[in-house]
Amino acid sequence: MAMHVTPYFLPLMALLVTPLCEAATKGAQAPFHALCLAWDVTQNMKLPARSPTPAPSSYDRLLKLNMSAALANWRQMFENSEAKQGWPKYKKANSDSTKGLDWSKHWSSWLTAADAVNKPKSNWNAKDKPKHNNSLKDYQISTINMSAQEVQNLLEQLNTESQDSSGKSLANAVNDELGNAFCSGTLTGTAQAPVCSDISNGQSKVAQCTKANAGKSIALDMFCLCAVTNDQDSCAGGTNIAGTVLFARNPHASALATLISKCPKKTLDKQLDEGITLALAAFLGQLGQLADNQNNIGLGRTVNGKVYTGTSSACVEYTDKIKHSTTGLKQIAWIGHLLTAKKLFSEYKQQVAQKQLLIKDIDNLSKQAEHEYGRNHAVEATAGSPRAGTPGEGKQLSTKQECGKHHASPDNCNKAGCDYDAKNKNTNPKQDHHQQLQEQEQIHLDVQGTKINLILKMNKQAISKI
C-alpha cells in the first residue's frame, strides 16, 4: 500500500533527513525570518471587526408584498404621525394598547414598506400594481405572512455574532490568541513601533533569555535570538544593531521596533489557517541541534562557544520544551496560541458558511412568497387556517352577538364593549385595533409550511456537509 504524506509533515521529514547541525551553522538570520513569518500572521491576519450583514435585496420586496397583503388598518397604522417618528414614540403614544409589545427591531423596515405601499404614486404602486388583502386567497396571504416572519427570524440569526464555547466572539477569540502569540504580556505602542512587556529594559538579556522563558512569545524569542554584541551574528544582516537592540547588557527601549523593521511586510497572501501552517513549517525547518552540544535543540547558533549565556549567544533553546513533552510543540507557548487560533478560525469559517446559507434561505423564502403573491388562478387551500389578518374571528362573532342583546342606541355604547352605528341604527363590537395586531403577530400559520420548512431543511443538510 502506498504511503500518503500530508503537507503538514513535510517540514518534519526534511528536518530528519537534514544534518541536524546545519541550522546551527547558518547564524541567526534564517531562523529570524521564520519568526518574522509568525509575526506577520499575528499582525496582518487578524480578523476584521464585525459589521451588520445587509439583507438580500429580495427581502425589501418581501416586506412590501407582506404589507400589501396585510389588513388595511395595519397599513394605516404607519400613517400615524407618532408612527413615523419611530417605535418608541408610537409605543408611548399608545401605551395601553401596545403594552407588552416590542416591535423595535422591525419597525423601521415596516415603516419603509408601508410608506411605499400607502403612497399611490410610489414606484411600488406605479410599477407593480400590487394586489391587496381583499384580492388574495387565504393561503396566499398566510404563506406571504409566514415567509416574512421566518425571514425576520433568519435575519436576526444572520446578525448574531458567532461565539466560542465560553461565549466570546469567535473573531475576538481568534485575535486574542494571535495577540498572545506575539506578546504574552502587555503590548503598547503602534503596529510599527510596538513595545511588549515580555522584554524588560530593566533586566539583562541573561536574566530574561532563560530556558524557562524560551517560547514565551514571538517578541521575546526574536529579542533573545537577535540581541548580540557581535553584529555579524545578529539578525541585522551585517548591520550593527547593538545600539538599538542591546544597550550594554539590557534590552534597548526600541529593541522590538528595530527587529520587526527588519521583517518582510505582508509576505503571506493566504487565509489565516494557511498562514499559520506555513509559518510553523518555516519554524520547524529551522529547528536544529545547537553546534556545541548535540543534545540541545533550538534556533540559531552560538558565538564564542557560549550556549544561551552572555550577550553573544545568538540562539533560543527549546530543549526542555520539546523533550519529554506530552503536548509536543504546543509546549512552546506562542505555537500553542497559533494552533488554538487556527482551530477557532476553522469554527469561524464554518459560521461564515452557515451565514451564507442563511442568506440563501432568505432569498428562497422571498421567492416562495413572490410565487404565491403572483398566482393568477389561486386555488383555496384545504387546510382550515384562519384568514391572515383576521385572528380571533370567533371571539368577535361572540361579542357581536352580545352587543345584539342591547337596544341599538348611543346609551348602550359602553355595554359589552359595543359601538353605536348611527347610520344603520345598531350596535357593533368595539374594534380593539392593537389587540388584533398583537394576535396577528403571535399567531402561528401552518398553511404551506411544508414547502418553507423543506427549503430550510435542505440548506441545513448542506451546512452539515461543510
From TrEMBL:
One Pfam family linked to the record: VSG_B
Ranges of residues in domain Trypanosome variant surface glycoprotein B-type N-terminal: 14-362
Cell compartments where the protein resides: Cell membrane
First and last residue of the signal peptide: 1-23
Entry superkingdom: Eukaryota
Coiled coil start-end: 141-168
Function: VSG forms a coat on the surface of the parasite. The trypanosome evades the immune response of the host by expressing a series of antigenically distinct VSGs from an estimated 1000 VSG genes.
Name of this chain's protein: Variant surface glycoprotein 1167
Organism field: Trypanosoma brucei
Lineage, broadest ranks: Eukaryota, Discoba, Euglenozoa, Kinetoplastea, Metakinetoplastina
